[in-house]
Design brief:
Chains A, B: Pfam families: Peptidase_M32 (PF02074). 2 copies of one chain form a homodimer. Chain A has 503 residues and is mainly alpha-helical. Helices cover 64% and strands 3% of the residues of chain A. The radius of gyration of chain A is 23 Å and the shape is globular.
Chain lengths: 503, 503
């Protein structure tokens, strides 16, 4: 074995170890959120802390740094396979990011973030922004220290964005979000002014939970979710977690008085899961065996939930089956049902927002995060700023901070730069759908016949199988032949809602 | 902080880490056996291997050896608390055992044992002892190398016994098993000759699984199993696993045509779980936070399953409730039901054996293990030896090796010295019950009224809370005022079956 081969083997073994730790941690968390007994949680948290700590130690070890340098040497790097090259460059990126933060500072931050999350929960319940303010200030101060240590890019906020959407910048987002905002605000207003508002009353009844569950399982199966490589459980907040490509679990939450909440939640998480179940086998046991970014991951959950699951052909195929599971309860036409599940209406709470106005919630948060890190906004100004933007973009004013600036957990835990992923997901999804319509003949007829597997196959071949082997921008370019283009989402929404609201 | 305090702190942190790894591994295994998707199992096994390897590295690190030596120094050791002293001596024992085996040899053994287990499964299905023989020989050869490395005690087999029942010896077991055998063989014969054989026909019907489950849950609750510190799931082979004292899980398996199989299985695992749920908080996060030996652990499962769960007072209290869950199906008297659940009859298969003859199955295996490691028996002789002993002690001859020497998985995986734990459990259970009857006033009236919590409390105070803080022999002596005494089991069985079979 040559020296380079020996280094590569040790490097790959370390990556495999990190991945095994991730699998163990993934299961420890999954279990906490699905059914771990209450009294074991404190000790469990300590175990999670220990395993995370060992993983962090391994990911930042000087030995790993040496192997990386050896593999990056001119001459050496070029001899690596495409997968190994990407593994080296991705690991380098993570390595540099991690070793730049002194362990002590990071530990202080973890404690501060945990305290801040706890305080946020209390502050939200009591509508007490003032009480939360010092905690949030502390978390922001740590985040600013991290930006200094990592090094600011073109803007300080760019450094944060790059954590979740590698390569994404304020310069690019200002443009796409600007376009989006300029077009969605008037579209939203036109919808609000339409006399053709859908009826949603029939959706609010008592719907048997086991029938909801069996329908959710049926739709997952139709989507091509592999139940031999996953399972569906319940949790307070639905999520998907890929322990390995043969074990990608999802959870949902059944609401008795809402027949589609759990279903759309399941389809959403199912979309995340299809991504992780279909990554090429060559990436198993490497850190490339996951979605390439939060935005691309979100594009898959939203593609399945919104583009497919809230489409007219989908319900033309499946509404009869849903009706038959709730005899006498859904005595409406397919059209009424389809329109009832696609109402657009400005609202206060992001996670309850519709497919269109959701993006305005995100743009507000994006603009505020920029103000925090690059615009000199003070934490004490955030509630007022928030309310102004809601008035401006959505035409409504939160009656309380609990329903305003305090509604999301993200900032309390330091997840700045994450929010844009959600709208990026919507934009990527629409752009992928646009290409799919052109390439996959009769795509909507397939959906109308319940033949969803060719759709899953197309996504697997074009997107899923690559895992982290392609960056988000490489992926979008290679699949759609152009960079991120917000017009696809605008067109998709305009077409859809012009029909529904007869604009 | 003094130097000793600093060493102690680092030592305790390492022990805590080992315990956290154990928790993660415990969950990874629990998940594999209760519901992990099939396609993820290969990668899961690799993750388990990695985490086990890291734990082993930590448990055998030279650094840990240095801390142990420092803490054992004259003067230092005496200043430690009772818990720390025990932690040091237990860790030393494990440490010495582990470091004496070269890692390479151990890895070879793990592979050989896994291959042998696979082959055993096939050989049992095909009744092919000859095909299994070379695999078993290999596992025995590794075991003999381990005995040489660890150092043989008074006998070679003593070294194996000590792994599962610390301090137990052939010299002691020969005596107690000899007494037991001499008294149980004639008792078993007298029972077989009795004209008063219980009826069991009514037990074989189709019993609704959900009703079985709800009754099992009810009985667990009656026993004082804490559902906020555990959960009940299903698996092919029932087991209990203590991840931490606040998370002690059990599994069971429901048989449609047997109304008590799952129930007694649940009570059995519930007994194991009560032990682990009630260990004193001071031992949490240490390796003393578990049962003190396999035999003592088994005494608790068997105490609850047999001594309590198969007693007349228990069914006088609970039979009505069982009847009401299966309307029209259990139309017999309490006496008939009680006797039907306590038949004694020599049989071929250990895990299906009754409370009395079970011990003869164990004594046979004990005698054979002695012959393998100290008596020069060849593997090729085992089937014949097995059949001779079954003829001698149980009066029956296996019609095939599949129902004879191939029935148990233990030897294939190298678990020599484990079998005696089961009968030790029966003996300890009877001896503890004997003391409980004297100390806990009206014990059987409590059972007859369904007041099981005082029984759980007594066991917690006398046994459970100590975890591994007392050795098996210290525990038996302190609880019952005498060493292990097989006469308690003989007396218990004689009294019980003299009544049932009207001897």
């Amino acid at each position: 074995m040559s020296e380079q081969q020996a280094v590569l083997q040790q490097f790959r073994e370390t990556i495999h170890k990190i991945k095994s730790y991730e699998e163990a941690l993934g299961l420890l968390y999954w279990d906490l959120r699905t059914g771990a007994p209450r009294k074991g949680m404190d000790t469990r948290s300590e175990s999670i802390g220990m395993v995370s700590g060992e993983m962090f130690k391994l990911s930042t070890s000087p030995q790993l740094g040496e192997w990386l340098s050896a593999l990056e040497e001119k001459g050496s790097f070029e001899e690596l396979t495409e997968i190994d090259q990407r593994l080296v460059s991705e690991t380098r990126k993570e390595y540099d990011r991690s070793v730049k933060i002194p362990p002590k500072l990071y530990q202080e931050y973890v404690v501060a973030a945990a305290q801040s999350e706890n305080k946020w929960e209390e502050a939200k319940a009591q509508n007490d922004f003032k009480g939360f303010q010092p905690y949030l200030e502390k978390v922001i101060s740590y985040t600013n220290q991290f930006i200094d240590l990592w090094g600011a890019k073109a803007t300080r906020y760019d450094t944060l964005l790059d954590q979740y959407e590698p390569g994404m910048t304020v310069s690019q987002l200002d443009k796409v979000f600007g376009d989006l905002r300029d077009k969605l605000v008037p579209l939203s207003a036109a919808i609000a002014a339409s006399p053709h508002q859908p009826d949603t009353g029939f959706l609010r009844q008592s719907f048997d939970k086991s029938a909801q569950k069996s329908f959710s399982l049926y739709i997952l199966e139709q989507m091509g979710y592999d139940f031999e490589a996953g399972r569906l459980d319940e949790s307070a907040h639905p999520f998907a977690t890929g322990l390995n490509p043969g074990d990608v679990r999802i959870t949902t939450r059944y609401l008795e008085n809402d027949v589609t909440s759990a279903l759309f939640g399941t389809i959403h998480e199912g979309g995340h899961a299809l991504y992780e179940q279909n990554i090429m086998a060559e990436l198993t046991n490497t850190t490339l065996c996951t979605g390439t970014s939060m935005g691309i991951h979100e594009s898959q959950s939203r593609f399945w939930e919104n583009v497919i699951g809230r489409s007219r052909p989908f319900w033309e195929r499946y509404f009869g089956e849903l009706q038959s599971r709730f005899p006498g309860q859904l005595d409406v036409s397919v059209d009424q049902f389809y329109r009832g599940n696609n109402i657009v209406s400005p609202s206060l709470i992001r996670i309850e927002a519709d497919e269109l106005t959701y993006n305005l919630h995100i743009i507000i948060r994006y603009e505020m995060e920029k103000l925090i890190f690059d615009g000199g906004a003070k934490v004490s100004d955030l509630p007022e700023l928030w309310n102004e933007k809601y008035k401006q973009y959505l035409g409504i004013t939160p009656p309380s901070d609990a329903e305003g600036v305090l509604q999301d957990v993200h900032w309390s835990g330091g997840a700045f730069g994450y929010f844009p992923s959600y709208s990026l997901g919507n934009m990527y999804a629409a752009q992928f759908a646009d290409t799919m319509e052109k390439e996959l003949e009769g795509m909507w007829s397939l959906v109308g016949r319940g033949e969803l597997l060719p759709i899953k196959e197309w996504l697997s071949e074009r997107i899923y199988k690559y895992g982290k082997l392609r960056s988000p921008s490489e992926l979008v370019q290679s699949v759609t032949g152009k960079p991120l283009d917000p017009q696809c989402l605008v067109d998709y929404l305009t077409k859809k809602y012009t029909d529904i609201y007869k604009l």
